[in-house]
Amino acid sequence: MKLVYLDTSAVLKRYIQESESEECEEILSNFENFAISNIGVTETLINLRRKLGARESVIASRLFEADLASFNIVDFSDEIGREAVTASGGKNQATLDAIHIASALRFKKQDITFLTYDRAQAQAAKRSGLRVLGVAV
After folding, report:
1. Do 12 and 115 contact (CB within 8 A), yes or no?
2. What is the CATH number of domain 3-133?
3. Which residues contact 15 (CB under 8 A, 6 or more apart)?
4. For the chain, what are the domain ranges?
5. Each residue's pLDDT tens digit in the chain (137 positions)?
């Protein structure tokens, strides 16, 4: 089972045309299963509203919510919160980025890849032992 965890930076590229959107879709075509945290769901919906016009954000949000039916969604827990502190490595890591890394680590025993377009997050994910695609680290 080829599983990819999508950081919000990658998810948004599916619904908003950005410079790496085509590359992101190509990467995703190599995977059978997708994972995201429930925090990533909220973060994605907020960013779709922030970055798109009213009509476009409604359409993109509906498409995203339909896609979620086939996603593995990781619930935020105290354990993931503690793992996020470790994943941050004591560096200047954004809280949400560390939560995404900790959420992806829930699948570490599976064939998991972490997809992000955030360079600092990619480096932290690699330090945590995840295979990373999307951004060069």
Report:
1. no
2. 3.40.50.1010
3. 44, 48, 60, 63, 64
4. 3-133
5. 599 999 999 999 999 998 899 999 999 999 989 999 999 999 999 999 999 999 999 999 999 999 999 999 999 999 999 989 888 877 677 889 999 999 999 998 888 999 999 998 998 899 899 999 998 65
